[in-house]
What we know:
Blueprint: E1 2-6, E2 21-28, E3 31-38, E4 46-49, E5 53-61, E6 63-67, E7 74-77, E8 80-86, E9 91-96, E10 102-110, E11 134-139, H1 142-152, H2 158-180, H3 194-209, H4 217-224, H5 228-239, H6 243-261, H7 266-272, H8 277-288, H9 292-295
Antiparallel strand pairs: 1-2, 2-3, 3-10, 4-9, 5-8, 5-10, 6-7, 6-9, 8-11
Helix pairs in contact: 1-2, 1-5, 3-4, 3-5, 4-5
Amino acid sequence: MSITIITPPKTAGIVVKPESRMDVSCIDPQMTLMAGTYCSDTEDWYEEPLERGVRLILVQSGRLRCRVPGQPEHLIEGPMLCTIANAGDFTSAQVYDTARPLRYTMLQLFDDDLEGRLGWLPDSLRPRRGEDPLMISCPATKAIQALASQIATCQMDGPIRDFYLGGKALELAALSVQTLSGAPATGSDESITSAEVERIHAARAILVEALREPPTLDQLALRVGMNRRKLTLGFRKVFGTSVFCYLQEYRLREAHRMLCDEEANVSTVAHLVGYSPAHFATAFRKRYGLSPRDIR
């Protein structure tokens, strides 16, 4: 599997803002995982070919309208999950909301081996040859949103990153099919608005930019325009963990990266990620099973 960072394609009729970005992970010839942010300056419709197979699209925030042959127009507003099953030569048409960036995760399962790769899909979601594409959408569950955030914020490199994202792609496929096919999902699901998702991502950005002196939970909530309880619940829903645990894990991952890739000593690394040397050694050993000095 290879990881490539690319610029979104220049499509006729679409003006892409510089802040648009897309990560592409080619897991194998039958599966492609994409995640990123898309910004458009026009509300014109544009058309593109539909790949044969099943496309799972999670819109975490933002909004678009989508059309495929034989189906009514769908309004997809995050957080929402959508699938398009296609076995013919068709196109889809999309128009994007220019007021908000579209944050998305997409998994394409190709139909080269319908009885193998896609044979596990329920009949209601399988592409049918000779028929129009099928498009289904529904609200995204808490588990799916958390999984997409884990994909988008993966800090691993090289083959380990590839292996991690490959597993997450399969997990995303299974959870999405469970949700779209109406199978019962575990756990409760509370609603969260697209605007709140954006604020929660803004809170994460503030945290990772201030590892040495992070804001308190109350300060963080104030900076992103949320109350403490809503931020706490929303952060756990979007990222699958608490604010404190996310910060601690991010600090330790950054410390591990710096110890492996940079010349800084252990005390300097501890200071850069917001730990005292003594507390850093304890937390690092608990997380990785060895002391920071063993890395050097």
